[in-house]
Amino acid sequence: MRTFYVFKIRKEMTILTKETPYNLFRMIEHLYYLDEYNMDVSFKVYNDIFDIFNRDYVNKRIISLFKNNRYYSYEEDKHIIYNKYKPETTYLKVYRSHIILKSDSIKPTLLVNYLMSDNLFVCDFKNKDYFWLNEFVR
Question: 28, 64, 109, 120: least CB-packed within 10 angstroms?
């Protein structure tokens, strides 16, 4: 099962890194692996790169998109797709700072169908994979 981290990138940073996603990934990866002694620096850098998610809005939007999908459920702030015919098991949880999506699918339903803006950047740190969400969906 892969773990994807979805970040909402500030507009200015999106413009700077749209054509060079590797550079953005390296910056985010560096923040991801920082130790707790460097938290004050990482917090400042974080605020320069990322916007926050409106958790209520995102959760309500996902629920409204998938409410008629028989493979979808929502429990304890976690969106779940369990489709034994595809097969796919996907979990998505929204935080203010990022979204975590765990899936055994190459193109998770929750990721593909939730395209809300051009500035969503997806990272899989374990597999060194990264992409702009709007380019992944095309």
Answer: 64
